[in-house]
Amino acid sequence: MIHEHSRRQFLRTSSVASVGAIGALSGAAAGARAETRPIAWVAPKSPVSISSGNGLRAVERAVLRIGEGLDPVLGVVEGVGIVEADPDDMTVGYGGLPNERGVVQLDSSVMHGPTHKAGSVACIENIMHPAAVALKVLQTTDHVMIVGHGAYEFARAHGFPHEDLLTDKARRAWLRWKQTSSDRDDWLDPGQMDWNEEGTSVGLAGEVEPVPFTYGTIHCGAVDTSGNLSACTTTSGLSYKIPGRVGDSPIIGAGMYVDNQIGSAGATGRGEAVIQSCGSFAIVQAMEAGMDPTQACLHVLRKIVSNSKRQKRLMRDAERPDFNVVMYALRKDGVHGSAAMFPGARYAVADGVGARLEPCAALFE
Ligand code: GLY
Question: Which pLDDT score, from 0 to 100, does residue 2 have?
Answer without folding.
Answer: 36
